[in-house]
Design goal:
The protein is an all-alpha fold and 99 residues long. 82% of the residues lie in helices and 0% in strands. One of its GO terms (molecular function) is chorismate mutase activity. Keywords: Isomerase. It holds the Pfam family CM_2.
Length: 99
């Protein structure tokens, strides 16, 4: 590898060695793949939530079930700590009102 390629790779990754740059590059590819899967799962969750909301509204209920949302918040908090609550709030917000 030329010194220009080495510099470009290490600068792009923040690494100081070619070995670290290669490791970081591979790990970033894995993260990108995980992000694609996470986005797909969130979109699937949104679709399922819309079905639930529609069924609830059609049967005369409310669009949102606050006790269920509280349980979801607790589940994420228990699994991921305080940032889990923030993540759950974002998911719940994405899934509300899509009907």
């Amino acid at each position: 590898m030329s010194s220009i390629g080495t510099t470009d790779t290490t600068v792009a990754t923040g690494a100081h060695t070619d070995e670290a740059a290669a490791l970081i590059g591979g790990a970033r590819e894995r993260i990108d793949a995980l992000d694609d899967r996470i986005i797909g799962l969130v979109q699937e969750r949104m679709a399922v939530s819309a079905v639930i909301q529609q069924a609830r509204i059609t049967s005369g209920g409310r669009r949102v079930n606050l006790s269920r949302e509280t349980a979801v918040l607790g589940y994420y908090r228990d699994a991921l700590g305080k940032p889990g609550t923030t993540l759950a709030m974002t998911l719940l917000e994405l899934c509300r009102g899509r009907v």
